[in-house]
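Quick log. Single chain, no ligands specified.
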Amino acid sequence: METYVDAISETPHGVTLALDVTTGAKRSLFPAGYNEWRQSIRCHVAAPAIGGRANRAIIDLLAKTFEVPRGNVTIVAGYASSSKVVSIAGLSRSRALECLKRSNT
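-> predicted structure:
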């Protein structure tokens, strides 16, 4: 069974997630697995990595998955990289894990 525990850190304002992103995928999918080596959650977005489109798609996908407003989701590291750290305000670690488990079934 896949585990996402190591990819999620609780902060005073919410959580941060370590992501391993694939852009230009056939379809957007989150979670798309777990990268044990990077200890990150895989995320596939259909949008290309041009002009910030993929980053906007990631924010939309995470906001939908975790049922939070788009404004609560911020890319805090790796803006131009496939390895990203994303902050989600107002979300607890336990709620994040619950949403991931529900999305994975």
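Strands lie at 8-11, 14-22, 34-35, 40-44, 73-77, 83-89.
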